[in-house]
Amino acid sequence: MRIAVWDDENAFRELFQLFFSALSFFAYRYIPDKEICEDIAQDTFFKIWKNRKRIDIKTSGRNFLITTVRNNCIDYLRKKELEENYRLNQEDCGMNEAVSTENLYAAFELKELIDKAMEKLPPTIREVFELNRLEGQTYSEIALKYNVSVKSIESYISKALKILREELKDYLATALIFVFCYL
Question: What is the CA 96 to chain-centroid distance, rounded?
Fold first, then answer.
């Protein structure tokens, strides 16, 4: 509350000191590289400070931090998997290095645009969207987890898709061409 309402840097510093080590250790469950885990934890705090006026925490602050670090770890792993799959695909296709570098850059740029669009989703809607679209959970499973109706989950997904379509409208054609031509 002190951080979001009064921009209290001391409260933020206390939060950082209290949770940084634990969140770095938690990230190690997903990524066995201490430096990367610390970067992820630090990036989490940076995003929290940057978005402090817009963050709407529905659970405890601790759970919010853990969920955010987990999501950042998953995003990192997805990015690494995308890089590896792309590299393997390029090796299989025998593409020349100049074209490969250009396509890899386009893939990273597209991933960053999608990440930025996802950040614009309200936290609950983003979590529901990720649970359904990225982790494969059904609407019923998510509704039970959040203790809401399936219709509410459908509404969340619909809102997420609407926001993402709007945010990415200028890039959808490019993304489709990239996916069909290069992956």
Answer: 32
